[in-house]
């Protein structure tokens, strides 16, 4: 399968982008349904991306991972889909 790269440029301050990707409400507003997100004071944490009734088959999908690192307004890095779960 060919690799897909998608980029969107939005002219907003970096702090607004950070709020969107560092809160579950931010993720759920544009990409997921019931994401949970926890950031610890030391920059580690965990994210669980969730989609409910997704696609034509109405499946529930969960994917997530512990954070590799998080630097406020600079970087939010995690690896996902190592063990995603699909429920029908």
- Alpha-carbon distance between the two ends: 25 Å
Strand elements, count: 5
Mean pLDDT rating: 76
Discrete helix count: 2
Instruction: Give me the Rg, rounded.
Output: 14 Å
Largest sheet: 5 strands, antiparallel
Unreliable stretches covering 5 or more consecutive residues: none
Helix content: 10-25%
Q: What form results from the Cα inertia axes?
A: globular
Beta strand % = 35-45%
Spell the H/E element sequence: HHEEEEE
Structural class: alpha+beta
Brief characterization of the structure:
It is built from 2 helices and 5 strands; from the N terminus they run H-H-E-E-E-E-E. The chain has 88 residues and is of the alpha+beta class. 10% of the residues are buried.
Task: Describe this protein's structure.
The protein is α+β, with helices and mostly antiparallel strands and 88 residues long. Helix content is 17%, strand content 39%. It is built from two helices and five strands. Strands 1, 2, 3, 4 and 5 form a five-stranded antiparallel sheet that branches. The longest helix has 8 residues. 10% of the residues are buried. The model has no long low-confidence stretch (mean pLDDT 76).
